[in-house]
Task: structure prediction
Amino acid sequence: MREIQTDKIIEVVAKLCKDANYYLPQDVMDAFKDGLNKEESEVGKAIFHQLIENAEIAKQDEVPICQDTGFTVVFLELGQEVRIVGGELYEAIEEGVRQGYTEGYLRKSILKDPIRGENTGDNTPAVIYTDIVSGDKLKIIIAPKGGGSENMSEVWMGTPAAGAEGVKNFVVERVRKSGGNPCPPIVVGVGIGGTFDKCAQLAKRALLRPIGSDNKDPFYADMEKELLERINNLGIGPAGLGGRITALAVHIEVFPRHIATFPVAVNIQCHACRHKETII
Amino acid sequence: MAEIRISAPLSDEDIKKLNTGDKVLISGVVYTGRDSAHKRMVELLKQGKDLPVDLKGQIIYYVGPAPAKPGKPIGSAGPTTSYRMDPYTPELLSPGLKAMIGKGPRSKEVIESMKKHKAVYLGATGGAAALIAKSIKKAEVVAYEDLGPEAIRRLEVEDFPAIVVNDIHGNDLYEEGVKKYRR
Ligand code: SF4
Result:
């Protein structure tokens, strides 16, 4: 067994929270530049210029790319040969979030009770997903998720007869209805299969894939390409003000399904496509 | 794209010059306000009470900024989604509110009400929060401090970048822009 101290985890999580919010990933920056070249609308081009400049300012001044520094979504891949010492794993994650959001001047957006409100004051609790994997390492991914794009997401319990066409129509329609609200250019995460909750998780995980990467299965890689084209033909454009580039990528992840069900989830990610990871 | 400089508070003359699709650079005073502040202000108006700020000729920016780093007036401060303010907006246009800055389309009722009261809706780029914060030179909480990021702040801005989405003639850039590029 390899031992990992909770102090180390707290330190890593706090740093990841700050870094994820200050530094736009390179693949997203590259996608902006590519989008700027392809965009035909003058307003759309101006928006791309703003987004590129915004990311540069955020990096230089170490301030958040977007004021909505999100719900802190944490993906853990815990090697089964790891033993956590010094405290509890989840408590360490929460402490890391607390420190990162406070020290990093990040916005605290979490309400203690969904109906009765009251800000928790430190952006905890985080939403934590854990996978137990082989090995003796702990991988921590922090993906702050803003409210504007999360609000445009949806799970659809379709019927098996809907098939590929049903999935595609649902995804395109979901993006069309969202218009400018989720801060386009967006990344579209699609989950197909599993249960009601599983497909939503697939859609969220799909957002972690590097922009421009294809699904390993050529069938789904083709579907991703077709969906991207259909979505960009909607004309929504950067900031929703009209243009060629509405989405930077569509990422599909799938899981086996029950013979009677056909769940499909769309998780929309705004251009503030933030995630950072560290392996301990 | 025409580029127009305006300075707040705004007169009817300033508003008349603005057309859907124009780029504007705003200087002067802008107030912040979002969900909870709107709810409280509309409740005050219903009770016949005064608002904590005089809205005549003013601009409200829908934003809940990130905390300011030491030495800076404000943290990152991009717009929030405007449709959540739609139910309250017509009631704030009556006492003289002249412009709103946010992101995303407004309801038919709000667009009608803007025509009636000669007010405009300006779009700021959602998520361009570090960039926009650079144009904010001063910020102070003037009401509802207990609401944290949702408190009403008085901002002093210089060349705050926005685009005219709805002018006083009922035009809507979200609709027209998207129609132009739809295939
Ligand atoms: S949707 Fe994303 S970019 Fe837009 S305001 Fe929310 S977090 Fe920021």
Notes: Chain A has two domains: 2-20+65-145, 148-273. The mean pLDDT of chain A is 97. The helical segments of chain A are 6-22, 26-38, 42-61, 89-103, 147-150, 163-178, 196-206, 218-232.
